[in-house]
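Subgroup meeting minutes
Present: P.N., E.W., G.H.
Scribe: E.W.

1. P.N. recapped why we're keeping a running log of single-chain structure predictions: easier to compare across weeks, and new members can see raw inputs and outputs side by side.
2. G.H. added today's entry (300 aa).
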Amino acid sequence: MDLIADTVERLDRFLARMLPEHSRSKLVKLIEEGKVTVDDRVAKSSMKLEAGMKVTLDEPGESEAHDLTPADIPLDVVYEDDVLLVVNKPRGLAAHPAASLKEPSLVNALLNRSHELSTAGGSFRPGIVHRLDKETTGLMIVAKTDAAHVNLAKQIEGKSAERRYFAVVAGHVPQDHFKIEAPITRDKRNRLKMAIDPMGKPAITFVRKIARLDQGTLLAVRLGTGRTHQIRVHLSSLGMPVLGDAIYAPIAYQSGALQLHAAYLAFNHPDDGRRIVCFAEPPADFLGCEMAKKESIDSF
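Output recorded in log:
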């Protein structure tokens, strides 16, 4: 199988992220046996990948197959052309199949449509350039061709693609504007969580207050980097957890729908470079949704 690197990352960590159904020790063993190449050269586990590099390996055996059965799930397509589409992902829909996932994912819904999907991100997640957590709503880019996939992944890595979110957090946020700059890595005590750690990868989040609500504060959030769970980890670290967050919020704030919505997405078209800007309003169960408008996040 061929995988295309989408960020700067160690080879062993990249494979563990791309092939979560396989143990890390199995993947490291494949690398040590010389069965993994990067741009057609045998590589070591510690090799630093760069976006666009091709990683080639045989599919590791003895793994549960991903369910790639097409599913008739209606999709809210915000933009579409011959090489890509932008989908407004609903709450409760996982981005791609996983061994632990029993219900259909966005990938299964995409496979039900009459067009090709890129395979640069791996055979079990065709078309998926970047992901949103299952309970996070909002905009995702889907690539139909491998060339578009590689181009878009480089834009996300190079930050020419912009992603902005609405979030409702607990409590009162006094500042109108602020920046959170704190490195993030996998939590050493719980591998399902991320944590702020001086040895982690750099992570930057820009925040603007929109409105004070009865239940908390409505924020606009812009990513300076795109680490796993970045917004939720950063905001929680400042004592302003996202409401409905069952992982990072205190128990008192975990109930209800996750109040995080990917509302704004802008990128350069892979074919002609024109700027594509997409916006999707939050769903009806998003607190303060009547104030979460395009103009409040457009110039942020």
